[in-house]
Amino acid sequence: MNTVSVIKIKSDLDNEIVKLMDLSGAKDLIKSGDIVLLKPNLHAVQHYTTGGTTNPYVVAAVIKWAYKCGAKEVIVGDSPYYGLSDPRRCFTETGMGEIVEKSGARWVTFGEHEFRIFRSASRHLPEEVGISRFVFDCDKMINISAMKTHFNCLVTLCMKNLKGCVRPEDKAAFHKADVNRAIVAINSLIKPHLNIIDGTVGMEGMGPASGTPVNCNLLLAGKDIVGVDSAASFLMGIQPEEVMTIKRGYQAGLGDMNLDNIQITGDKLDDLKMNWKRPDSTITEKFPNLIIRNKGACSGCNMNLLVALNDVKSESEISYNAVVMGQDEPVEKNSVLIGKCTSSFWKDYDHISGCPPKSGDIKKLICLIK
Q: Of the candidates 190, 114, 204, 205, which has an alpha carbon nearest to the alpha carbon of residue 158?
């Protein structure tokens, strides 16, 4: 039976991480001389108190634990969302880089280094996809995701977090087909030795970058990536079978989403269960008449639209009935088009170019107040 550990944080993070590792069966994971890769979620340039990124102090506690276990070197690596002009900012401006260095590890942005190329790996992936060589060159990989809702995938947890290992230019292609199936395919190629969910501060509502912080003080860990995500989604008030990455991952044999088949160690799930606001209901509540057509839109356009909408005070400020992005097509006459993917319709509609356009420019376009 697979094991997922769940703990409510009651003391300092160093002690809680040791406890989490013991409960998850990872006590002897790291061997003397191992090179260890930690993959946090630094999707955007946000402080961890927003819930938008992995808490750097959780990462620091894992670094200390790994060195105490005998690790030779610990590397912390990630690649932010497609469209961030300077990827290093996700380390320098979030405080992650400084805290990692003080903990004795080094940090890398994957896009500045080599990728292993996979061709025809899956019909759900681009014909050619690059995955960071750090994933394959390390002895142990520990996946440390944030705990958030997600506009496209309902939640973003450990399975979704592995998309950050992919070559930047391949990321947008994920959304042009079925992003959930593409994430599952990536999980078939990348196999972390342990998966941790940082639930110190989560994000509900308009995630993954424009939602509301949720102070949870939770940590989850397990070797079964589907099982860990299933437990976390349950704690968010979302049934695992509602999350397509989890459901497809289970169907692909990547793990078990049936919580009755998973041994939960530590605290009880039912005692910690919450009811998080979902992205679709949050947007509908604030903008009941606004239609968003975003089939095949990448995370860059989606996220920047959410940032723009989050900054709009009310629907009365919006001058359009529909927003169209990605591979979707305008249906409503009063539509506005976002991003270069919609260029074939530009001659007939108001639009903004860019890949992706800046959130401030999107807000100026869609609002009555120019």
A: 190
Q: In the prediction, which pLDDT does 168 show?
A: 86
Closest CA relative to residue 102, chosen from 79, 80, 78, 76: 76
Q: pLDDT digit string (tens) for 231-256?
A: 999 999 999 999 999 999 999 999 99
Whole-number pLDDT of residue 368: 64
Whether residue 172 sits in one domain with residue 99: yes
Q: Given this model, what pLDDT does residue 370 score?
A: 42
Give the up-direction half-sphere exposure of residue 307: CA atoms within 13 A in the CB hemisphere.
Answer: 20
Q: Is residue 280 part of a domain?
A: no
Q: Is the pLDDT of residue 138 over 50?
A: yes
Q: Domain limits at 356?
A: 287-366
CA 240, CA 33: separation in Å to the nearest integer?
Answer: 37
Helices 359-366/299-310 angle, 10° precision? 60
Question: CA dist 292 to 280, 301, 302, 334, 337, Å?
Answer: 10, 12, 10, 12, 10
Both 131 and 268 in one domain: the answer is yes
The pair of three-digit structure tokens given for residue 250, joined into one six-digit string? 């289970």
Final residue before a domain boundary, out of 272, 295, 311:
272
